[in-house]
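Problem 3 from the worked examples.
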Amino acid sequence: MAFSESPDAGLALLDTLQLDAQLGEYHLLHATRADLLRRLGRPTDALPHYRRALELAPSDPERRFLQRRIDDRKASESVVLHAASSMHGQT
């Protein structure tokens, strides 16, 4: 749905699925939400969902993938903070 319509449409569908208590503990639900938020340019909002998916992920390959996403977000945040502090130092 997110690919045929939009990430926003995918998020709306996930909201209805998350009402099911069993699906709330499904790691791919959280990973999907995180990815859609990332695609919408909302990586800060995506981070807690990546972390929850990591907690629930049953396999090492999935945990490694999710950890890379989290690490990528932290690295991006560090670059932004460094750039911002550099800009303040120049004024």
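Problem 4, a separate protein:
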Amino acid sequence: MKNKKFTPLRDQEINMEPRPVTTDQIDGVVNSSEALDTKMAKLNDLRQQHDDWANRQPETDGKPLLRYIDEAVKRLLHEGDIKEIETAS
């Protein structure tokens, strides 16, 4: 077994890149009055930006926000289906 050498925090190299996507941005897209395909494209772009950021961060995989974005997409699609049913009635 290899002995690990302790490295003080001040000597560690930390990648301090800010998060490019927030839940507020996602909620803003979901609650906007744009067309469904525009919302889906923006959510896809936000998901890609977050995924790229998470791949550059060794300490996180970014899964919670990816799940949040995926849930927002599901809500949008479900909401769109309900609106289509209501207008058909």
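Solution to problem 4. The chain has a mean pLDDT of 83. The radius of gyration is 19 Å.
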